[in-house]
Amino acid sequence: MKAIEKAFEILEVFLKHKSEIGIAELSNLTGLNVSTVHRIASTLIKKGYLRQTRKMGKYSLGLKILEYSEIIRSNHHIREVARPFLEKLCRSVNESANLVIWDGYQVIRAEMIQSNHSLQVFPTSTLLPPHCTGAGKAILAHLPKQELERFLRSNSLDSYTPNTITDPDELRKHLIAVKREGVAFDEEEKELGVRNVAAVIKDSDGNVVAAIGIVGPTIRLTRQKIREFIPIIKSHALEISQALGYEGK
Fold first, then answer.
1. How would you label 14-53 residue by residue, b for 16+ Cβ within 10 Å and e otherwise?
2. How many of the other CB atoms lie within 10 Å of CB of 244?
3. Low pLDDT (below 50) residues in the chain
4. How many CB atoms neighbour CB 107 within 10 A?
5. 152 neighbors 171 (Cβ within 8 angstroms)
6. In terms of Cα–Cα distance, which of 213, 235, 243 is closest to 98?
7. Predicted TM-score of the model (pTM)
8. Which residues are within 8 A (CB) of 123 and not within 5 positions of it... i.e. 6 or more apart?
9. Span 70-243: which CATH code?
């Protein structure tokens, strides 16, 4: 069993049993020897996934787990609020509309409403590379500088097509223009023959939490056509933001 699997074995014990568990009981419940449990638990404590009481020496779930649970609850709420606006956007432009959520580390396609065209663009993945998708670039452009730099340090800008931006400096300059315009385009950067455009969604604190946009084949979603849709996309993104408590414009 790999180390990461053993770590999950330990964490899952706390989902099924009492909140505080000693090392001997953890060993018994997981089938791992005491030294292995101690070694993995020590790493989980350092990372914030477990904590240990000083008096009894028992383990319990750490605050990092609570952070993840808050993210899950928040993402579900955003999806519920955004869905009627997503459906309205799809009807307004008769193109597929999608909602992408930023969880602090990556962009996730949370919802997609398909248009009624016979020629469709079907999603191939739930996780999207932020640097070469409209929604991803819209989100990156509105991140605090420190958070953007953290993303650039920890992620490789992989090439998907000849149009993909793979140089960090070039991407930084591009994102300045994206923020100025208020929307981001994917000009066949993730997939040849596919174009999309997106605008960001903000929460009540003004933080960027998601993006909404449209996607379609380049043969139908021309540059001229997509420019016509920009005000509609922006207005829907603002409506969702306001529904989440955002008071800006």
1. beeeeebbebebbbebbebeeebbeebbeebeeeebbbbe
2. 20
3. 124
4. 24
5. yes
6. 213
7. 0.70
8. 98, 109, 112
9. 3.30.450.40
pLDDT of residue 95: 92
Q: What is the pLDDT of residue 69?
A: 59
Phi–psi pair at 229, nearest 5 degrees: -85, -10
d(CA 154, CA 151): 5
SS (H, E, C) the chain: CCHHHHHHHHHHHHHHCCCCECHHHHHHHHCCCHHHHHHHHHHHHHHCCEEECCCCCCEEECHHHHHHHHHHHHHHHHHHHHHHHHHHHHHHHCCEEEEEEECCCCEEEEEEECCCCCCCCCCCCCEECHHHCHHHHHHHHCCCHHHHHHHHHHCCCCCCCCCCCCCHHHHHHHHHHHHHHCCEEEECCCCCCEEEEEEEEECCCCCEEEEEEEEEECCCCCHHHHHHHHHHHHHHHHHHHHHCCCCCC
Q: What is the pLDDT of residues 182-214, one digit of tens each?
A: 999 999 999 999 999 999 999 988 999 999 999
**121-142 burial by CB neighbour count: b if 16+ within 10 A, else e?**
beeeeeebbbbbbbbbbbbbbb
Is 201 within 8 Å of 243 (Cβ atoms)? no
- Per-domain boundaries in the chain: 3-61, 70-243
Chain position carrying tokens 């009624």: 116
CATH number corresponding to 3-61: 1.10.10.10
pLDDT of residue 72: 59
- Token pair for 8: 């999950």
